[in-house]
Design brief:
This is DUF3669 domain-containing protein. It comes from Trichoderma harzianum (Hypocrea lixii). InterPro entries: Znf_prot_DUF3669. The structure is a single chain. This protein is an alpha+beta fold. It has 2 domains: about 100 residues, Phosphorylase Kinase, domain 1 (2-Layer Sandwich); about 200 residues, no CATH class. The protein contains 12 helices and 9 strands. The strands form 2 sheets. It has a 5-stranded antiparallel beta sheet with strand order 1-2-3-5-4, with helices on one face. A 4-stranded mixed beta sheet has the order 7-6-8-9. Strand 8 and strand 9 form a beta hairpin. Helix 5 packs antiparallel against helix 6 and helix 10 packs antiparallel against helix 12. The chain is globular, with a radius of gyration of 36 Å. The relative contact order is 0.09.
Length: about 375
């Protein structure tokens, strides 16, 4: 077996030892350097506790001021003996309607939701079948709360004086009032000079939705009435502004038919208003379903409950007026109601599968025409 010479051993051994020591030192230096680099890269900088405190305080102040501004925009819009209506800066459902009668407000919420869904579906359906009628918009509703204090906007309202924290309620879309320019124009055109000053001074603080009265003309006292809150737009006002009232009458007739035969309610207490949508455009709206009730589909209910519901809210619904420009108004309303009723009952064969049910819309309109129409029975 060959062996290395001793000189080779004596020379190479010290060399290997020096190299090993050098390699170890280089390795330790490299590890130490990498640790320092890692600390520099991954260790966060020291935090100035005083600076953090100042930032937190500033954010808290900003948040508090934002909430304060949020509360400042919440206010009572309307109040009746049955309900409160509050407006808050909470899009898209900015209106909260509340009542301490949970059963009543829940029933209204269910009817409102049904009407909203039905009118959306019917609008698409009518377009597909080529109907030349525009239905009114219905405020979108959402979120019923048996206790309004558990709602997302409870913090918005609880600081308001007189807020009914123990009430039930639901949210709905906010109909924006007519803008300042519309309001000032109408005041200057339709109010007497002596009444304009007071009306102009309060118009910005009033919620002005124009109630569409196709069944009435303005009273003699109207030019002196300075109240701009949801003021009526009478038939002669609409004619003076060149509004196509026959088209509105047809829309109302179709609406009443849908409420009767698609939604199954008597339409008691509903209102039609002109107000702005989210884009600022003035639209035709159907609102207020608090007094609506279901009805049995019998001749007795049709000639009593349905007719009474219209007569209790008569300023809104068209009637026959023996003036040349208005004689066709009732016919537009009547024909649209009957045409829409026929369409609904033909489309829903299962629900209206016998002649006695199909005759109910005609029976209703014949009875109503005796009171509001020209007095001539339908052929």
């Amino acid at each position: 077996m060959d062996s290395f010479p001793l000189w080779h051993t004596s020379v190479t051994a010290p060399a290997e030892s020096s190299i090993n020591r050098l390699a170890s030192r280089l390795l330790l230096f490299a590890v130490s350097t990498m640790d320092r680099i890692r600390d520099i890269i991954f260790t966060p900088p020291p935090v100035d506790k005083k600076q953090k405190t100042r930032r937190s305080t500033l954010m808290s102040r900003c948040l508090c001021s934002t909430i304060s501004a949020f509360w400042a925009h919440a206010h009572l819009l309307a109040q009746t003996d049955k309900a409160w209506i509050y407006v808050a800066n909470m899009p898209p459902f900015r209106v909260t309607k509340m009542s301490r009668n949970t059963k009543r407000i829940f029933r209204e919420y269910k009817i409102h939701s049904n009407v909203d869904a039905t009118f959306k579906a019917m609008s698409k359906h009518l377009t597909m079948h080529g109907f030349d009628v525009d239905l009114p918009f219905v405020p979108e509703c959402s979120g019923f709360y048996p206790n309004i204090s558990s709602s997302p906007c409870s913090e918005t309202f609880k600081h308001l004086n007189g807020f009914p924290a123990d009430a039930s309620g639901y949210f709905m879309e906010y109909i924006r009032p007519l803008n300042e320019h519309h309001t000032k124009y109408l005041i200057k055109r339709y109010l007497t000079h002596s009444a304009q000053g007071q009306a102009l001074s309060t118009c910005q603080s009033k919620h002005f939705l124009a109630k569409v009265y196709l069944g009435d003309t303005k009273p003699l006292s109207d030019p002196w009435n300075t109240d701009m809150h949801d003021r009526p737009a009478y038939l002669d006002h609409l004619l003076a502004e060149r509004v196509e009232v026959s088209y509105l009458a047809a829309s109302m007739g179709a609406t009443l038919a849908i409420l009767h035969w698609s939604c199954g309610v008597d339409a008691r207490g509903v209102e039609f208003v002109l107000g702005r949508d989210t884009r600022g455009h003035v639209q035709f709206w159907l609102i207020d379903f608090a007094d609506c009730a279901t009805f049995p589909k019998t001749p007795e209910a049709v000639v009593t409950q349905l007719v009474d519901a219209v007569m209790e809210n008569e300023p809104f619904w068209p009637r026959f007026i023996n003036i040349q420009a208005l004689r066709k108004l009732w016919a537009c309303f009547r024909d649209a109601y009957l045409e829409m009723s026929d369409f609904i009952m033909t489309d829903a064969m299962i629900d209206y599968d016998n002649d006695s049910l199909r005759a109910l819309p005609y029976l209703f309109m014949m009875e109503l025409e005796k009171i509001r129409g020209s007095g001539q029975l339908l052929a």
